Structures are given as structure tokens and as C-alpha cells.
Amino acid sequence: MKIFLFSLVFISGFTFAQGPQISVKTQFDTYKIEQLSAKILKGDEQVIDLYPIMKLNDEYFVSFVGKKVSGASLDNQEGIFYGKEVGDILSVRVRLDKLNSIQNIEGLAFLELAGKIKKSLDKVLWDTRVDSVHAGYGLPEGYSGKDVFIGITDWGFDYSSPMFYDTSLTYTRIHSAWDQFKLSGPAPVGYNYGTVYNTPAQFVAQGADTANIYSFATHGSHVAGIAGGSGAGLQYRGMAFESQFLFTTFLVDEAAVLDAWQWMKSIADAEGKRLVMNMSWGLYHFGTNDGTSLLSQAITAMSNDGVVFATSAGNNGDVNFHLKKDFNNDSIRSAVAFYNYNSNPNMWGQSLHAWGEVGQDFEMKIELVNSSNQLLIACPYIPASFNGYIDTFMISGIDTVWYNVTAQTAHPQNNRPTIRFRVKKTNTQLKIIMNAKAATGRVHFWNVTELVTDVGNWGMSFLTAGAGTVGGDHFYGIGEPAASGSCISVAAHTSSYVLANGQTYGGARANFSSIGPRYDEVLKPDISAPGVGVRSSISSYTDNNYSPTTTVFFNGRTYPFAAFSGTSMSSPAVAGICALLLEANPYLSAEQVKDIIIQTRRLDNNTGNIGPNGDTEWGHGKINAYAAIQLALQTVGIEEPKIETKWLVYPNPAADLIQIEGVEGIENVHEVSIIDAPGKVSTLEMNSGGITISNLSTGNYIVRFILNGKVLQSKFVKF
Questions:
Q1: Whether 332 and 252 share a structural domain
Q2: Which of 115, 231, 284, 402 has its CA 20 to 30 A from that of 413?
Q3: For residue 577, how many C-alpha atoms fall within 13 Å in the half-sphere facing its CB?
Q4: What is the tally of structural domains in the chain?
Q5: What is the pLDDT of residue 286?
Q6: Is residue 641 part of a domain?
Q7: SS (HEC) of 379-427
Q8: How many angstroms from the chain centroid is the CA of residue 454?
Q9: How far apart are CA 353 and CA 339, in angstroms?
């Protein structure tokens, strides 16, 4: 029996004299792209779909995500250009022929190849208590998301759908849409790719976004309908049905989504409106999955600047795709389940990811065994401290197993040791056994499907296969971007509802909803929302399979609705509720919005009693929009307005009296709250917009009141 190998090994040295730190995984993948450059230049779609590659002005560029050196100046240069910064994180595009020089780019601290991304009502309104928020029961008024933007990064938008019109079906609520796949232009200002639409006539003329890696998809239309659909005259009204939409059909990589976020934020800032971002997609292939990735850092930076992020927690709660091992000079063996090669024409194989503890090395190898679990062939053990990559195969009889490995003793973002084994085995009668050993330390392993398009993100089990092997579990199932500490990661449950006899049914946890925590033991998910059989709009242009539940005829075209399930559906429900909170109190920070949602969680017989530390299945419980609105109205926000307000406190500073000017209806406000620097709240009378402050001590204050259901607040100084 022989093993045939071809390999390239790049050993260590991911820090360069003047250039960025680059992980071994990025080095390996960049090397593969360079090796395939001839096929890329010929337009080989299979190769192009495998990596984050885009075509600009008839030239191919590779997408990266970078972190800028503090204070450095970055200027576009021949074959390299930069996107707009999100904090100190930004997209970096490198022309194909310049890949061999990325280690020499100055001004970047880190550079990572952009990971590829996969897309991961009527009863929902009652379950989330949004129906009471819409009606305004016991509230200053009803809330509908007015004056708030909801940004959807997805695929499959129907720009002409009545769900994205106002409730009278008179005008569209889509402010702008950016189709990054469409090359005709014009591109948004400041970007040099894709096509932007920003007028009702353009939306109607275009109809829908272009076909892409998901063909003529519909996922984005369904998600957007949940977050803020008008209902199109039916009962399928979304959470924030008077919000405005920003849509981006984004290239399937991190760099593109960074550009999308920055573009959306620039529009919201220019309009002086708050922005909620929904992300119903994710991957386990990229990032560190512990909140330290460049993508997570970008989310944190934007959250600190007021953007609220909601994201699906993942759909791997019903598969045992994870293993955890505390090593003590021993080893672990487990069989790797493969997705069916006949079920997806893009099936490549399985991707085994492992993360260890800082300063602790570990080793991995794979074995090929027959149906009787007898060893046929094995590769050597490869330690994380190898700090390199291998691309090779092994042969047993007429069977070939292809695999490649990247190993790094200290990843640039979290200093943890990591190994990725990518394995292709097409003979279903044979098995792959994963082996790992270490002297000490805890290591987590995941088994996820990988397609040739690099967008598979569903888990496959670790299985027992004879003596000495162990099976997996379904814990620690949180991937990117749900692992970000700043975003609201959303689990899924079935909607509960009340029958005519008064009994409540439903409300159980969705078995597919990914289970936490993060592998660094930080709690995820954060909250749960309905995500099973959710009815919403789908694109009338889609060529995806679906079973319509109803249709609406509008402007000479038939628009279907369908019921989908997934945390992709629960996340936009939370995004829409966040928009309701920001309508009521636009001064809330992103962190305050998240805290309010957690504090006002709802518990029932399905959730059981969840303590203050939360639960790895439910997060902190079920979202309760009504209680969240009540708390939002009582919370003193810390977010500053993005544009100059049209009203003011005058004079400022003041000694004895302040006057509120520029607020229509101020004569109807009779009491205001005055908050001092330590946070003490006092209630003072207001007469025709005037407030006597002579009894206040010298210092900084906030005046705060509610008018027409909306919080208004401003700072003033008493001298």
C-alpha cells in the first residue's frame, strides 16, 4: 500500500518586516488562488465562485479584510485599493497579479482573506407582543418604526413588492438598494463596483436584483418582509411596517459586507436617522468564532457609533457536529460524517476546524478505514505549531482522499492554536476518522460541509465507528457573525398562539436553533424569537423552489408569500423590534438597545426559569417588544443625534430659566425630567415651554420629555 503526496509547505513567518500579520490559513488560500490564476483569467466560474474574487473594469481582484495600523495613512495604489474604514477595519481589494506582494503592504496591522458567506407573521406579532406595540395599548402611542432605517444584507430582493410599500400601497419605503453583482453601474459614490438604485422609477424598472451564486433568490425578500413588511393588504405585517429600507445584494464575502454596512451607515447619517442592520447569514469557515475576528471588531466599531446589529444564531442545533476534549497526554478519535455528494452539485467535502487554548499545542491527522473500521491508510500527525500548510492526497487501492491542512500555533486575532483539515472522500463505503492528541489543554472541533462555492455552513455529525471512537454533541454551535459580542444573536422558537377556548399553544424551542455558548464560554445566543413556519413575502422573480401560502396581485403582477423556517426568520423579527425601540427613543445606544431586550425577556413553560446568566438554548428568553418599549421610554439614552436637532434649549448655559424652542406641541407638555451627571432624576414643571431651574445646583444636566410618543432630550449647563 502506497501513499502518494504532492504538497507545498509554507513554514511559519506570518509577520513581515513592514507588512501586515497574515494567518497561515490566508497564506494557504492565497497560494491556491495564485495557482489557479490562469483559470481565473479565463473566467472559470467554478474557480471564481470558490474564492472571494470580483471583476472590476475587466480585471480580477481578490477581496481581503484588513486592520489599519493606528495613525497610518492608506492610499490606493496600482492594483490595490481600500474601502471605507469601519473603525480601523476595512475592505482591501488586491488585483490578481499583485497577490504575491500582500506581505509588503504598509499601513496594515492585519490582513485576512475575506471569508465567503452563506444565507443562513401573523402569529409572530402576538408571540413577540408587537401587536400591542402597534396598537399602543398603555403606551403614549403606537409604534411602527417610523424614521428608522433597516438595512438588509442578503440576496433575492424584489424591489417592486407591495410588502415594501406603505400600508396604503401608494409609495415605496425602499430608500436605496445596492446590487453589488450588477456591473453596469452607476456604483454608489465612493465605491467602484456594483449598481445603485435610489428612485421609485428605478426600483420598478429593475424589478429585482440580478441572479448570483444563489440564482434568482428570495431569501432577502422574505427576511425584509418580516422586519418591516407593510402586509401588502394581508395579515402578514412586519414588525416595523413604517420603517425605511436599505438593501444590499452583496458579493458573498466579508469585504463586500463591510462595504455594504459603511454605505448604509453613510446614508443613515446623512438623513439623521438611526440604523438597524439585519444579518440572516453566517459561516463557520472564517473568523475566530470567539468575538475577536476582524468582522467582529468592525461590528463593535459600528455599534459604538450607534448601529444596532441583529443576526441569526445559526441552524445547527439538531446535529452533533461538535467535539470538546480536555487532553491529558491522551487522544481522541471520531468518524466524520459527509454530506451526500448527490444532494448538491457543488459538494466538495468536509471541513474540520479546531481551536485550542493559548500556549497549548495539539496535533491532528485523518485515517481512512473500511466498513469494518479496519485501517487502510493514514496521514501523519500535524501539530498546530507546524505553522504552515499542506495540500496533498493519499491513495488506497483505487480510492483517493484529497486533503489540505492549515496549522498555526497562535492566530493573529486571539493567539489561540488552530488547525483546519479540509477532506474530500467520494467513496461512501469508506470512512474518515479524525484523530487528535495533546499533552494538555482544551480543544474544540467542528465538522461542517464545504461546497466548491465555499458557502456551505451546515454541520455534519461526528460519529462512533468501533472501539475507541466517540460521537459528537450539538453544543458550542455559534459561528460568525453571531459570535460578535456587540450584536444581538437570535435563537428561534415556534410562535405561540391562543385558541378560541383561551388555551395557549406552541412556543417550543426550534430543534434546529444553534446552541451556545461560544467556545470561550461567553453566552450566546442572546434572545429568542419566532423562526418556524414564518409567513412572509418572497420574490416574484425567484427561480428557487417554494410552496406559496397565498398571493397578492399588485400593479399588474402576482406576488407570492411562503412559510420558511430558520434563525434567518427570527433575526429580522428582532431587527424590526429594535427599530420600534429607536423610534420611541432615538437616543438609545446600540448597547442600551441590546440590554433593554435582554432585561425585558419573556419566560414561559417552554423556556423554564432562566437565571441572570442566561441559557445556551434560549439566550435570556423570548423577546418581549411591549415590555422593551416601556423600558426604552424610561431609559435615558446616551447616543448623540447624528445631525443638528431642529429644537434647542435656550439659553444654554442658563441660571434661572430655560426655554424649549422649536418643538411643535410643546405647550402640551407639563412635566419634564431633569437628569444630573450622576444620573439622579428630578421632575420639574413646564409652562409654555419654560422650566424654572433656579433650585438646581451648578453643573451639567439633561432635560428629557415625551411628546407624541417619542423621547426628546438635550443637554444644558446650569451656572
A1: no
A2: 402
A3: 40
A4: 4
A5: 64
A6: no
A7: CCCEEHHHCEEEEEEEEECCEEEEEEEEEECCCCCCCCCEEEEEEECCC
A8: 17
A9: 16
E-assigned strands of 668-719?
671-676, 681-685, 690-692, 699-707, 710-718
CATH number of domain containing 494: 3.40.50.200
Does one domain contain both 378 and 242? no
Buried/exposed 264-285: b ≥16 CB within 10 Å, e otherwise: bbebbbeeebbbbbbbbbbbbb
Can you give the residue range of the structural domain that contains 44? 24-113
Degrees (nearest 5) of the Cα angle 394, 400, 404? 55
Residue 230 lies in a domain: yes
**Residue 438 DSSP SS3:** strand
Cell of 464: 462512533
Residue 490 has phi, psi (to 5 degrees) of -115, 125
- Strand extents, DSSP E, 565-598: none
Q: Residue 581, Cα to own-chain centre: how many angstroms? A: 20
Task: Report yes or no on 474 lying in a domain.
Answer: no
Alpha carbon distances (Å) from 289 to 9, 50, 194, 261, 521: 26, 21, 30, 20, 11
DSSP per position, 281-331: -BBSSSS-SSS-SHHHHHHHHHHHTT-EEEEE--S-TTS--EEEEEEEEEE
Name the β-bridge partners of 447.
352
In the numeric block, which cell numbers belong to residue 328? 491529558
Q: Give every residue of the chain whose pLDDT is below 50, as ranges.
A: 1-17, 119-120
Residue 417 preceded by cis peptide, ω within 30 = no
Same domain, 96 and 145: no
* 249 and 138 assigned to the same domain: yes
Same domain? For 390 and 532 the reply is: no
Grid coordinates given for 324 = 470538546
Rounded to 5, what percent of the chain is helix, strand, coil? Answer: 20, 35, 45
pLDDT at 706: 94
Residues 310 and 333 in one domain: no
pLDDT of residue 11: 41
* DSSP for residue 253: B
* pLDDT given at position 156: 93
pTM summary value: 0.89
- The answer to the question of residue 82 being in a domain is yes
Which three cell numbers, joined as nine digits, stand for 93? 481589494
DSSP symbols for 590-605: HHHHHHHHHHT-B--T
SS3 category, 577 = helix
Overall residue count recorded for the chain in this entry = 719
Cα–Cα distance list, 4 to 377, 394, 396, 402 (Å): 11, 6, 10, 11
- pLDDT tens digit sequence for 421-440: 999 999 999 999 999 999 99
Q: What is the pLDDT of residue 689?
A: 87
Q: How far apart are CA 625 and CA 580, in angstroms?
A: 8
108 and 239 fall within a common domain: no
Please give the pLDDT value at position 364: 98
Residue whose entry in the numeric block shows the C-alpha cell 461512501: 428
Q: Are 138 and 262 in the same domain? A: yes
